[in-house]
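Protein in question quoted for reference:
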Amino acid sequence: MRALQCVVRLALLAPLADALLAPPPRFTRRRGSALAAAPVAGASSKVFAAATGAVSRLVVTTALGAATVKANIVTPEQINGLAKVVYNFFLPCFLFTTLIRTVATYGLSPELLLLMPFAACAQIAIAFLVSRFLLVPLVGVKPRSAAARELTLSGSFGNPGVLPLLFFDALFAGARDASLLPRLVALTSFYLIGFTPAFWALGNAILADDDPDAACLVVSPDECEAETRVDRAKKALTALLKPPPVRAALGGLAVAACTPLRDALVGPNARLANVFAALTRFSGAYLPSASLVLAGSLIAGGGGDDDDAPPGLRRIVALCLHRFCLLPALGAGALFGLAKVGLFPAPRASPLVWFFLLTQFAMPPAQNTVVMFQLRDNPKGAKRQARTLLVVYAAAVAPLAFLFNAYLTACGL
C-alpha cells in the first residue's frame, strides 16, 4: 500500500503542475513540413505537465478501484469475472468500433493498413528478444522460472493505446492544425491491429514457457497434439485467431473495408446506427473495467510472492532501464538506420509517423498483462504484476517527459 499512497500523492500534483508549469500556448508552422507544428517545440514544462497528467489519470482510476476492493465492495471472484468480460466483450467492442470509425474518417491508406501493424509486430519482436536474452539475465533469475516469464512479459509489451492517447490529447488538443490529434488516433487504431494478436498470442506463450508445446499453440497450449510441423502450424494459426480481441480487430477491419457494411453503421444514412452506438457505449467500459481489474489484482491477489521472484527494487530498476532507456535508443537507432538507407522517410518528411513510432518504443508495460494473469487463474501472478505496473508507471513521469520533449524537437513538432 505504500507504493499506492506515493503514486496517489503524485497524481494529486497533476493539477498543480498544469497550473504552474504549463506556459501560454504558442503555435508555429515550419516551412516545407507536411504537417503544421503543434505545441511549442522545447516546451519541457508543458511536456512534464502532460506526462504527470496522463499517468495520474490512470493511477487515480486504479486507486479508486483499489479502494472498492479494500472495502469489500468488489470481491476477488468478481475481479476474475470482470477480467473475462473485458477480454471477451469490452475490449473487442473497443477495437471493432475504433477501427470502423477510423477507416470511415481516413480511409485505408498504406501508411495505416501496412506500416502500423508491421511496426507493432517489429517493435514487439525487438522488445521480446531484448527482454528474453538481456533483461532476464540482468535481473538474475532462472530462465524458465515464473519470475523470468513475468519479466519477459512486462518487457515485451508496452501500453499501445490508453497512455499514448492521453499524452497526445494533452499535447495536441487545440493545436493550429486540428488534424494532428485525429491522425494520431488513427495511427494508434491501426497499430493495435498488429499489436493485439501478437500480444495475446506471444503473451500467452511467454506465460506457458514451461510447456514445450506452447510455441506451437500459443493461445491454447493444452491442445497441441499434432505430430507434424504442418499440422502444428495450422493449429497455431487457429489458436492465433482464437482470442476475441483478435477476431474483433480483424472483423472491424473487414467491415470497414466493405463500403456498404461500413455505411450501414456509420454512414450519413446508417440504418444500423443504433447498433453501432450500443457497441460504442460498451467500448467505453473497457478502460475503467481494465483499471478495476488492475486495482483488484493489486489488493486481492492472494498470498506472497513466489520464492523465485526477483527482488522488488532490482526488478523495477531493470524494467525502467529497459523500457525508458534501452528500447527508446534501439527504436530511434532502427528508424534512423532505415532512413539512412532510404527505406524510411526522414523525420521532417513524415514527422507525425516518426513521433508516433518513437513514443511506442518508450511506453511502460501494458495494463492488459494483469488481465492475462487473471484469465489464466493466477491471482498471485496478477498481484505481482499489478504492483510492478503501479510503481513503474509512477517512475515513468520524468523519463517520458524527457523523451517526449526530445521526440517533439527531433520531429519538428
About this structure: Confidence is low (pLDDT under 50) at residues 1-42, 210-215, 217-223, 304-311. The CA atoms of residues 114 and 288 lie 31 Å apart.
